[in-house]
Design brief:
Layout: H1 2-11, H2 19-25, H3 29-41, H4 43-56, E1 62-63, H5 80-94, H6 96-107, E2 111-112, E3 124-126, E4 135-137, H7 144-162, H8 180-196, H9 200-236, H10 241-256, E5 260-261, H11 274-278, H12 284-303, H13 307-316, H14 323-328, H15 337-356, H16 362-366
Parallel strand pairs: 1-5, 2-4
Antiparallel strand pairs: 3-4
Helix pairs in contact: 3-9, 3-15, 4-15, 5-6, 5-7, 5-8, 6-7, 7-8, 8-12, 9-10, 9-12, 9-15, 12-15
The structure holds zinc ion.
The site of zinc ion has 6 residues, from helix 7.
Amino acid sequence: MRDWHNENINLRKFKNAIAPRNLNNDVPDEAVETLLGVARKNAGIFQRYFRMKAKYVGMKKLRRYDIYAPVAASKKTYKFDEAVNMVLDAFNAFEPKVAGLAKRVFDQSRIDSEIRKGKRGGAFCWGFLPEETPYVLVNYRGTGREVATLAHELGHAIHAMLASHHSTFTFHSSLPLAETASTFAEMILIDKLLAEEKDESVRRDILFKQMDDAYATIMRQSYFALFEKTAHELVQKNASVDDLSNAYLDNLKEQFGDALDLSDEFKWEWVGIPHIFQVPFYVYAYAFGQLLVLALYQQFKAEGESFKPKYLKILSAGGSEAPEKILSEAGINIRDPKFWQGGFDVLEKLVSELEKLPVEKPAAKAKKAKTVRRQPALGKIKAAKKSVKKVSKARPARGRKAGKK
Ligand SMILES: [Zn+2]
């Protein structure tokens, strides 16, 4: 942190510690400040979510350790061929051109899906040259989540193919837009799954995982960035490790309110987040990307057909322009708090839908109690999901999401 300050503020005269990262991401300081401010205002959405989730897992209040606890174990699996058809059908319903590009990955055998000895884990898409169809690697076992991962990685491939008219240096999108096509592709698939899935436990599983992922990607990462801002200032005032840990605990208290039991040892959590030391302020790009997609998806639902050319234009731009310019051409102003609030509104609706479902507690499940449950309105479910296990190889510098623990 001292080196960061010496280099960027003393020598390069940036006005604060986050500004060099913003320049690196090619986004204006004002947009990032707006995003973090709006995130802070919306902490209550996840506090409500955690209070509701406590009821599902049969607790009065969740402990910090319990926030990712599964509420419904679904054992449903899909054969690989079935998964491919589901994904291509979902893409086709959105836009045949998008499905056609995804199909190219299969037609040219650019996908490795089976699990075999010695093969690396995880999933990624590698767009190596603009004129070449990208390679996709997944480890497919058949869970619903893996079908979504397949859609996600194909989304990356589609993004690269749409930008194939740019040069090797500009066809990869910049970091804040790097997960746009992938997350959007997942949402198209999830909407289809939710629309067709009759099994309540599968549906519930999907919805809760969406919220868990939204927490890990949006709110957690935003609060890391807020802590980093505080920490960089404190270090300049010769703060001790204890001072930093106390500041981190205050950050968590603001984030969770009284919705969770937060034990004292969490004040050390920041020590285990490598991004904070290795790539300062990297974390906010996760929140940026995910909220952007939520807001775009909201726009797609509202505008329908007229949205599609704008969306395809965003993807076709690759990394040839700054994200602000690419998005402003689609009518999006990333300096406007209303735009970011649109993303949180999607999540708020999702929590409201989940709150309306009668709670099926673990004890009730054991007795196989039959309850008539209201289904959430399909049109209102538009949250994004993202697996921390996914590492995109499209840009090797991009790392894993900061510690989902
Ligand atoms: Zn990705």
